[in-house]
């Protein structure tokens, strides 16, 4: 098994961050798996058309979607909540060919589908990979980035609240398959890889909006752990009948989306409706006692009351 070992000063420096690159990697892997599953949606079909004419992109995405050890240069540790895709791609491009090919060979060794890596023989491996991720970001992530960011920010707020009340042990519990394995170690994987020792720079926790998949980003002494965010990215669906008939489908969708505290602007993005529409639904639900608003800094977060929980379950 693989452990993430936390040094004496590590927990104090642990923090959350966002990564457009990690979100792009997650999305490309999801679309690649759709292609393999034989029922690709519109975006997966677009990706398939691209890969048919780009052997490098096809080989790279085939590898990253079928390995337990990602090439280091595609898993760059982010630094903050305002990480920019351009900065992450610049770090990727800075990797020399020898280093890139070495980590590709290691990744191939842990792949569950054997494939050639001849696509990595040309010069400028990392720069070519950066071009793949730049296009993946522009085509499949950037147009929907505000909504994706809202999902991730809501996850971070939830875990930050748990952290404040119960500490890192509880905040990290429930992230993918991660479990504590002692007072100073996290069980990251049942696979046998070298343990990671986190020093005084701490471990950066990075959500993504895919439903599965967790990985580490390693650039010692900087380490990050990427994990699936709580809550689905897709539209919130409310069963026909029940509470929707009582309060209306729009308000029922808002109520269903408030499983975690959320701002009006985040709700508008998540549900794909205007801020004015959301505000109207929130006012009605608040007046009925189904939700309550709590101010945090300059933002107001709405959450369900016990009445709201009861209604949402119907």
Features:
4-stranded mixed sheet; alpha/beta; 15% strand; 3 domains; 14 helices; 314 residues; Arc Repressor Mutant, subunit A; globular
Layout of helices and strands:
Elements: E1 2-6, H1 10-13, E2 15-16, H2 20-37, H3 42-52, H4 55-64, H5 85-93, H6 97-109, H7 125-141, H8 145-166, H9 168-172, E3 179-180, E4 185-189, E5 196-198, E6 203-208, E7 215-219, E8 222-228, H10 243-247, H11 249-257, H12 264-271, H13 275-287, E9 291-296, E10 299-304, H14 306-312
Parallel strand pairs: 1-5, 2-6, 6-8
Antiparallel strand pairs: 1-4, 3-4, 7-8, 9-10
Overview of the structural elements:
Helix content is 48%, strand content 15%. α12 packs across α13 (275-287). It contains 14 helices and ten strands. A four-stranded mixed β-sheet has the order 3-4-1-5, with no helix packed on it. A four-stranded mixed β-sheet has the order 2-6-8-7. The protein is α/β, with parallel strands linked by helices and 314 residues long. It has three domains: 2-16 and 148-228, no CATH class; 20-146, no CATH class; 243-312, Arc Repressor Mutant, subunit A, CATH 1.10.10.10. β7 (215-219) and β8 form a beta hairpin.
At a glance:
The protein has 14 helices and 10 strands. It has helices at residues 10-13, 20-37, 42-52, 55-64, 85-93, 97-109, 125-141, 145-166, 168-172, 243-247, 249-257, 264-271, 275-287, 306-312; strands at residues 2-6, 15-16, 179-180, 185-189, 196-198, 203-208, 215-219, 222-228, 291-296, 299-304.
